[in-house]
Amino acid sequence: MTILIAEDDDGHAYLLRKRLEAGGLAGPIIRFSNGAEAWAFLSGETSPGLIPGEAYILALDIGMPEMDGIEVLKRVKAHPRLKGLPVIMLTTSDAPEDKRRCLELGCSDYLTKPEGFDKIVDLIKAGF
Amino acid sequence: MENKTAGAPPLKGLYLEDSAEDAELVREQLAANMPQLKLTIAANKEEFRAALEKDGCDIILADFKVTGFDGFASLKMANELLPGVPVICVSGAIGEETAVGLLKAGVADYIFKDRPARLPAAIARTIAAARSIIARNKAEFETREARGLLQAFIDNTPALVYMLDVEKRFVLANKALGLLLGRPEGELIGKTRAEILPAEVAARHEENDRQVMEANAGRLFEESQDPEDKAGKTFLTVKFPLRGSGGELLGVGGISTDITERRRMQSELIMTNRDLQEKKRLLENFLYITTHDLRTPLVNITGFSEELAKDLQTLRETLAAAALPQGIKEKVNAALAESIPHSLDYLTDSVGKINRMLTALLDISRLGRQEQVVATVDMNAALKTILATCAWQLEKTGCSVSVGDLPPFRGDLSAATHIFTNLLSNAINYRKRDRKLEINISGKVNGGTVLYRVCDNGLGIKPGDLAKVWDVFYQAHVQSPGVERGEGIGLTVVKQLAERSGGAAWAESKEGEGSVFYVELPAEPGLKSGGKQG
Fold it and tell me: CA B162 from chain center: how many Å?
């Protein structure tokens, strides 16, 4: 399984990678520094996009420059080819309105940092 | 004849006559026919003057020929000393010219001494005529006086006071209106507004006048009286129809109060309020963004502290198996077993504290961002739910809660839930551990508000802390075992929510005995005061 990480903070991205590795999820990890980069990849603007038949999961931060995570989620879930991609929100925001919005848009789960770094590992391992 | 005059009001007469015989003749005649007339005789000029000066009278009879004092002189003296009292000349034959002269000079009548029988009728007629003149003069005088008083009265108010007739002409205007329109108020009388004000302004006023006359009732208008509207003055005008005693429409009256300053202050207040709202919004937004942004580095500190702890464990296990020189091993062990974990603990503790504070700040900033849903809130049902939510805590602490019949309030249910949950948690946390916690909740309608009361027998609050407990992050320094240190925002939230709901919150307390927290919220309109005290 390829784990896609959209995370603007280097520290958070490092910590997540470390926890994933420690959890035995040593598969390919692709990191994007903001929402726009993630969307460019997913939509196929800067890459061939997702390979059909391959398993992917997107760990998506909310507060990011250029394009925030909610916008990325909205686009993914509105995209005919991408809407099946599991998206786990991993954010510092515990605002109920953010959580409600993301769940409405169709995210698989909503985790807050720093506990979320460990929880996402468990979720992926459990097949979320 | 006596019957005819009996009961008539007494009259006083003065008769100037130097002939005692003539005087007696007239007196007899009058006593028989005009008993109500009390006649004083003056025999000469001096006596006549003295009588005029001393006593008033209703009628003066004067002989034309008194030694050294003719009819003209006596008339002059009488007119000077008792103006308005009629004089009848009583005399022997005088020339027609003299008689006409006397009448022109103001003598009311002329009677010959040889026909005294005519005297009573002449006196009665003269007095009646004089009275009617006096009455007319008096009425005229009084009207003039009343008008003067009215003018003085209206001239001394800063309000604009005026009356217009049905022809739309000013019939009354006060000084303030004259000053505003830049001409003496007297000059306004008889003029229409169109002759004074610009056509457009005049038309506006006249339209308001028309409405009042048509409605036949007083009305309030906001008007400008300024011809050019230079000063930009605004007046609050009450206009009312003027009607005569027969109900006929006479015109319209108006009283205008300058409300320019009031309006200016009102709009300033609105602007300030809007400005404050915007600042508050910015502040809440700032608070939200800042606290939110601060979390990102904090997550790193937490996450990396955890990484360090893990690495420390690995290091400890690796070095335990390694053979190191004795001195070095001791030093490394001391660092690995004590100082590094100790530092990490401090880091974790502090991060936890900052995190809790940030959560609290976020909670507070969210209060301002949340929409309130205003409805009638059944507090009996709401409190039942709140108590069910806190049931575990209440049971664990062995607390007993008594609740009176609570009146409903008008506001947001979730705000009330937050308020009372916080107050209950507060009471539980600050309970006195050596006695059973008892909480009593009651409420009553107090005018337009409902006053809820949450009373406990807990630790109480020191007098010096009573005002501070509402401050954000303030935590009472309670030296009592078991009290958990929260974020110090529970009561801040209570106060903010109560105030946001249009109410208030305050407390009374006796240290060691307990506290009473009051929450005032808007009442459901139409609820009667009192009652429902649980």
Answer: 25
